[in-house]
Design brief:
Distance between the termini: 33 Å
Shape: globular
Number of helices: 9
Helix content: 40-55%
Largest sheet: 7 strands, parallel
Order of helices and strands: EHEHEHEHEHEHEHHH
Radius of gyration: 17 Å
Structural class: alpha/beta
CATH class: Alpha Beta
Number of domains: 1
Bound molecules: adenosine-5'-diphosphate, magnesium ion
CATH superfamily: P-loop containing nucleotide triphosphate hydrolases
CATH architecture: 3-Layer(aba) Sandwich
CATH topology: Rossmann fold
Strand order of the largest sheet: 3-2-4-1-5-6-7
Length: 236
């Protein structure tokens, strides 16, 4: 069975891509074989997290690779897709050819977004690119995942409502709230599921289940060799 390819992408740093990728990878790996691909050199936060994890624990339950070019990414997927149930890809904080390739090879792009106006402004251009990718990759679904949500903050709720009204992208109902456990557990090579905050753990489990359901029936991606696809890959 071909792996479901799930990318975490956003044209901004600090939105929680690597944190989300690591946390989802750990929960998915409780029942399935998971490979992660870190496509964010030179930061490589996911690789740094994985290094802490491998230094501390004998069996991390996960496999990690790195890719810094579209060819490396596509080769890694081709080589491994039949051996894993899920391949999770962590992207760079800007649009580059690898991020474009992620859009063309994924079943699901997960877009972490904090409910603050500043993040929404920078998101609009990226959103256009996602729509373009959806026209080129018919097996692609794109979903917002609200992250660092602060409950009962009026401005946050207004931003989420406004995006719900104006964006063609839908968001997972399962949100991740602002919790110190996400920072602390990551620093120790863990997920929030392996940490001491039951609320954060429940959030990530519920998001994981929603993602699994969203991709369950999706067909494997076939990347077309059309001129439009080649053009899309070359830009940026
Ligand atoms: N839900 C959350 N609650 C609190 N802090 C978070 C949450 N998600 C991410 N963070 C923190 O935000 C910062 C940026 O996260 P990171 O995953 O490195 O973002 P990116 O990969 O998009 O640059 C890190 O310090 C991380 O611990
Ligand atoms: Mg990152």
């Amino acid at each position: 069975m071909a792996a479901k390819i799930i990318s975490i992408a956003q044209a901004k740093g600090g939105v929680g891509k690597s944190t989300m990728c690591a946390n989802l990878a750990v929960t998915f790996s409780q029942s399935d074989k998971v490979m992660m691909i870190d496509c964010d050199p030179p930061q490589n936060s996911l690789s740094a997290w994985f290094k802490v994890r491998t230094d501390l624990y004998e069996d991390t339950g996960l496999v990690l690779e790195q890719a810094s070019t579209p060819a490396q990414l596509l080769n890694l997927i081709e080589k491994n897709k039949d051996d894993f149930s899920y391949i999770l890809i962590d992207g760079a904080p800007h649009v580059n050819p690898v991020v474009r390739a992620m859009m063309l090879c994924s079943n699901l792009i997960l877009v972490p977004l904090a409910p603050s106006s500043v993040e929404i402004w920078s998101f609009e251009a990226f959103e256009e690119l996602l729509y373009k990718a959806e026209t080129l990759n018919k097996s692609l679904k794109t979903k917002i995942c609200w992250n660092r949500v602060r409950r009962r903050v009026k401005s946050s709720e207004e931003v989420m409502q406004s995006v719900g009204k104006h964006s063609k992208l839908t968001a997972f109902k399962n949100q991740l709230t602002f919790r110190v456990a996400y920072m602390d557990s990551f620093a120790e090579g863990c997920s929030v599921y392996e940490w001491t905050d039951p609320v954060a753990s429940a959030e990530i489990w519920s998001l994981s289940s929603a993602i699994k359901r969203a991709v369950a029936k999706m067909e494997p991606v076939k990347i077309s060799k059309s001129n439009a696809v080649q053009e899309f890959l070359k830009k940026g």
